[in-house]
Specification:
This protein has eight helices and eleven strands. The chain has about 260 residues and is α/β, with parallel strands linked by helices. The termini are far apart.
Length: about 260
Amino acid sequence: MKDEEKESENGKEKINKPSEQRIIDTGSVLMGDGVHTVYCLTIIGQIEGHTILPSQNKTTKYEHVIPQLVAIEESAQIDGLLIILNTVGGDVEAGLALAELIAGMKKPTVSIVLGGGHSIGVPLAVATKHSFIVPSATMTIHPVRMNGLLLGVPQTMDYFQRMQKRINQFIADHSHISLERLNELSLNTKELVLDIGSVLEGPQAVDEGLIDSLGSLSDAIGALYEMIDKDRRAQKNKGGNHGEKKRKSESKESKQKSV
């Protein structure tokens, strides 16, 4: 498919048309309004880690998302990243790895939780520079679980506690909720029938400080555009200040030579 050339205030720029194959393969799309170019990435179903899940499961494969994030960060054509989440959670290490990558990006990033952002989906939701959640969405906070063979020894409990500490610390560092409140919600025994933890609806997630704002898709895109514009102004001012310093330095050298 040929590139569609669009005119913008910054001059001519080429933006790839949304590719149906890209959507099918990776659940992503490159979009733009002629001024801003945004990469939209979806994280849905279960986060697949080191073990391949059954074919009937809807999954997000972390080995596919990692190179996408690196490419987005290094691309000169992409101005920002929009992440849409509707996930039940999944592999803890894979989800936390993706969250760390997103948190480490310099480009503007915004997330929006639709449907659900449960379990390890919570760190993914708060990893962006600004997070949104729709009123009907929910987020489940609960302790770490593990499938497979477990040894009934103190070291196993210590391992679980250290893993939980890593997750909770990441969430607390990238949101406005305290570690104490996060632990309290995670160990709640009065809400879930067959489990411990808490389910937060959209407004509750914002009130607790877990998510930044309550809003819809248009709000998330608008916030991302504002962040992109702010970054552009900052870079422009930085370039202007650098040029002014260079001119002053050259003028000073010229005066010294004339003396």
